[in-house]
Design brief:
This is Glycosyl transferase, family 2. With about 650 residues, the protein is α/β, with parallel strands linked by helices. It is built from 31 helices and eight strands. Among the domains are: about 180 residues, Spore Coat Polysaccharide Biosynthesis Protein SpsA, Chain A; about 140 residues, Tetratricopeptide repeat domain (Serine Threonine Protein Phosphatase 5, Tetratricopeptide repeat, Alpha Horseshoe), CATH 1.25.40.10; about 80 residues, Tetratricopeptide repeat domain (Serine Threonine Protein Phosphatase 5, Tetratricopeptide repeat).
Length: about 650
Amino acid sequence: MGNRISLCMIVKNEEGNIRRCLASVTGVVNEIIVVDTGSTDNTCKIAREMGARIYSFEWNNNFSDARNFSLAKATGDWILFLDADEELAGESREVLVKYVADEQVEGYFIKIINYLGKEGWTETCPDLVFRLFKNRSQYRFRGAIHEQIADVILEKNKQATYRIAEDIIIIHYGYLDSQIDQKDKKNRNLHIIQKEMVENPGNYLLKYHYGVELYRAERYGEAAEVLIQAANNTDSSTIYFPKLLRYIVLAYHSGGQPAKALDVIRQGLQLFPNYADLHYYGGLSLLQLKHYHKAVELFLQAVALPEQPPQYASFAGVRGFRSLYHLGEIAEVFLNYEEALRYYLESLRDNPGFQPALERIIKILKPRENPEYTRECLEKVLDFSSPQATLILSNIFFQQGAYKLTLEFLERLIRMGNSSAEILFRKSFCLIQERRFLEALRILNEYTADSYIYPLAKFNQILCFWVQGKKRKVRSLVQEIRTLEPAEDTESILRLLLRSQEKRKYVHRIFLGKDAVTLLLDIVGRLLYLSELTRVEELFSRVDPKCLGDRMLDIIRLYHEHGYYEKTVELLQEYIEANQNGEAHFLLAETHRELGDFIEADHHYRYAIELDPSQPRYYISQSKLYEDRSEKIKGEVPLE
């Protein structure tokens, strides 16, 4: 007997989580105690269906009081406590009984895997939590929030022994953005901790948790200050001290203070030389400071480190795909695309779902200019057979303006059975970019006023007819879309499209807001892809140039990306008269080089280096210019 397990929980409005949680322990625990603090949804109904005993508790902003109420109702020999947004991993079910059979142990630390981020794009962070302990009346939680019991057990029982339950894993979904936003966890936790700190000003564990909550609330300066106070008053052998150090680093790093982050990292590595997260964030801080070679050293050290102990709560990928990705980024800074591809591929091998690495690989392959070559290269390293992979690739191609490849992959997706409204709309978009206007219009005409895509469909119909010079159709469709009361920025662009059809040379120029300028640049990029330079000029001739000032370099880049080099030179020369910056001179140098003008290219590389000497690609590009020039001269020298 002696090994009955009681699951104890406190809940409120958890109908979206509780069934999953209780299903994970069904048949493993002997009783389920659910203390409800005021649910107004179906939480209690679901819990009752799953075999739980339900008790009501009036919430008093104190998690320990609610936890202790649940313990008082438990009859088992051991307590397992979970939150509703957690579950016991499937492989842990069979081994739980083995651990509670050990009479020499008073409690266990269990590995928890925290899922962070957005639904569909998540990261994992492991940690150690004290969740399994013997049920004794003197063992009760302490603290209004981030409640503790491990310390209390040791106070009550000096001989108590703890171990790590190596084979048990809890999965936690509560740090997903949707969960945090839904429950307003940040503000709730801060309010409770602030009140608790007034009552316990010398509790540095509480200060640590307060600093973490400040960090999550993006109050980075305050977080760093509070966390440093906690660190200065906490023994470095404390189980959470490595995490405390990392949060100080994160606060400085996120707050734009990489030098201070590096100071903490140097001190931290003296205590924990194999802590991969410190090496990784050291690399990021050095990268932020443009100390590239030192950053490479730290990222490589992170990759070479052994498996991290659970108490480090190491973020997923710091010893793999994340560090490899940044090594690829640094290789790109030095224009070493072969090495960059190697690192990005290694990053993908370590985590096939790490999309940023795939995006960089595709960008290097230049899918718009080289669609066939891009496809051939990707086929060697990726499996295109699944709908998910096909969708991801179509999204990346679309983002990078490779409309021919996007269309190809969208059609594959449709053949696989995905012909959703979004997929068909994107297909129509790409058909316009490939000048297949009739096919595009057939799709766009299918959207009705009750579809959320309808306004976008109408706008693309307008653009389709506008490119073809069909003025009456454009005017008619503009009137239709105006009945939907479009946003002010959309209305500005509609007015601009109408005015650009007019023959009058002298017209009042339209001033566009920031969002309208962004929409205009999207249209300009599409027009340049279609080689509609004249229409681009028509648009710009009717826009007040004052509203384009902040985006002028982005406009120039669009001309450059689409091969309009003479126009790029003309605009850059005007831009540089008013804005002396290294990036503009570098782009002008690159353009002159593409036009075969060695002297002007060299001239502007020199200016770029003088204005921003921290950019390696300026030096490397100039060096390659000399090499190319040297080879050309050798080729021109007649043989005797």
